[in-house]
Amino acid sequence: MSTLTTTPALHQHRYPPLPVPRLPDVPDGVWHHGVANRSLAEWVARIVRLARPDDVVWLTGADDEWERLTTGMVESGALLRLDPALRPDSFLARSDPDDVARVEDRTFVCSRTAREAGPTNNWWDPREAHNELDRRFAESMRGRTMYVVPYSMGPVGGAISQLGVQVTDSAYAALSLTVMARVGDDALAEIGPDTPWVAGVHSVGFPLRKGDGTRREDVPWPSNPVKYIAHFPEERAIWSYGSGYGGNALLSKKCFALRIASVLGRDGGWLAEHMLVLRLTSPDGRITHVAAAFPSACGKTNLAMLQPTLPGWRVETIGDDIAWLRPGADGRLWAINPEAGFFGVAPGTNEASNPVAVDTIRKHTIFTNVALTDDGDVWWEGRTPEPPAHLTDWRGQDWTPGAGRPAAHPNARFTVPVQQCRTLADSWAEPDGVPIDAIVFGGRRATNVPLVTEARDWTHGVFVGATVSSETTAAQEGALGVLRRDPFGMLPFVGYDMGDHWQHWLDVGARLGEHAPRIFQVNWFRKGDDGSFLWPGFGENVRVLAWIADRVHGAADAEETGLGLRPVAGALDLDGLTLGDDTLAALFAVDPESWLDECARTDEFFGQLGESVPPELHEHLAALRSRLWHDHEGTAPHPSASRTTVGTAVTRAA
Ligand code: OXD
Ligand code: MN
């Protein structure tokens, strides 16, 4: 691979070589002809001097970059080429068994003060963090190539777009970035002398050569038992050490597009959220744009690619994981998907749950930690009703159906360009985004939360978002299925104080005023007494989306419940669905006693977050308790509701 790429068109912007002392083993590729920003040039040189890679390669976005990277990785054993007839141009990566998910307990926000990071983040004093990280990164890339990956989040040059550069000694991370972001010289050319950009420094922490020249063999998935995912919001910088996996290593994604961008959004009057974006078209051609927030691995990709079961309705995909939302000149809230690829959870993906994803990943896809079939294709739990008789599991071991362990890791992933998605909306890359009509909050809740309710107004919607809880999934390390608070689906992703995030939402809503999108809450995961799901989900979720669209356009009625507004009888189109009255009632049931319990836990949660929780949200909690207590006892409000003034919420007419 060449160590120096030249881009004649950009040559005039090139900085003259900087007065960096040339060390004998600092490679030439430190310099790149497209760099017009001195801080960027100096930063690359600094990391090279610190981490001492053998080689530096800038990704330029050239047509053959994918080919060159994958060929090299197949040769080194980092990737396995899948059968070209069954799965053209596709590859399998197997991670180290200890590097399979985001590591939230090793994720840090290094803002100036602990107050700014807030109680939901691990705060780390920035000076201490830099000291420790400099120590870890020292010579951490010896024997390896360091890739310099310039990228744009959002269309290159778009008004809402932002720029970043990641340096990494992981070819897997570099390759994945070429899918997940707009990588190369076009993005680099946008970083002018004074353009802000976000720095991402990444090392897997597995040098191949020591200072004394001794070498060690590489492994297919290098990583380090010590991991740090550290964010420096004031410096617009991310330092990630020790992991090669997903959100730990593809710094454009959770680290930049959520944690750092949420801070940029707070300061700039916009929102960076863990949301899919879709365009819904009704049989009569009415368009509704929906942004929906769910915790990790709760089916955002499935919803973004939904195949409606209701005749005449159409869903088109704009994004499946992250949205940046900004009030536009017309006063409405406009959203882009800042990413360029899907990093989707493979297990459970099949023709019934998500036929569009099945098509999307037919070719040109990186699979990670899925199982390998004997004919060189991929498999995961739920891919087919019956597993094949023999597989090679995600660890590379023989697997048969009686093995007593999953063949694919539950957090196994596919990485694929969005352009391969047949339901991609033609507006997905509009530089100004699309105008959002409805915001949806969801979680994975076996009990309590109804199928759908509408918030009474924006502030109530912020309360609903702030009180989302969800059962944990395999996307993060730790126990599965444990109910945890996950406000806005953003618990691990807000790069500053959580209460301040809620206040920022209230401020954005105040600015939007009458143009603010409607806010809804959904729960596809409610279970009956026998433990089975009450709602069929997947393509049938369009019935709920259709009601939401009808509400937005004034075409459906709703009635009050203690929690918000729900569809009046007959408003939810259930035609063709076998759903007994009991099941329907159970889907919408609000049990005052368990909700009073839920409120007590919310009160506790707000208490843990401290003084930054906006008073309006305490008021909504008090009002909810009062209503529930009334329903429970048929009496006056419970004394606990009297802590704050109980306001009368205004019901917005449909
Ligand atoms: C993801 C996640 O990978 O939320 O999208 O963990
Ligand atoms: Mn996600």
In short:
This protein has 654 residues and is α+β, with helices and mostly antiparallel strands.
Instruction: Give the N-terminus to C-terminus distance in angstroms.
Output: 61 Å
Structural class: alpha+beta
Tell me, briefly, the overall form: globular
Low confidence ranges: 1-24, 636-654
Notes on the structure:
There is one protein chain. The chain is an alpha+beta fold and 654 residues long. It folds into two domains: 215 residues, Phosphoenolpyruvate Carboxykinase, domain 1 (3-Layer(aba) Sandwich), CATH 3.40.449.10; 289 residues, Phosphoenolpyruvate Carboxykinase, domain 3 (Alpha-Beta Complex). Helix content is 26%, strand content 20%. The chain is built from 16 helices and 32 strands. Strands 1, 4, 5, 6, 7, 8, 9, 10 and 11 form a nine-stranded mixed sheet that branches. The chain has a six-stranded mixed sheet with strand order 15-13-14-26-30-27, with helices on both faces. α2 runs antiparallel to α5, α11 crosses α16 and α15 packs antiparallel against α16. The longest helix is centred in the C-terminal third of the chain and has 19 residues. The N terminus and C terminus are likely disordered.
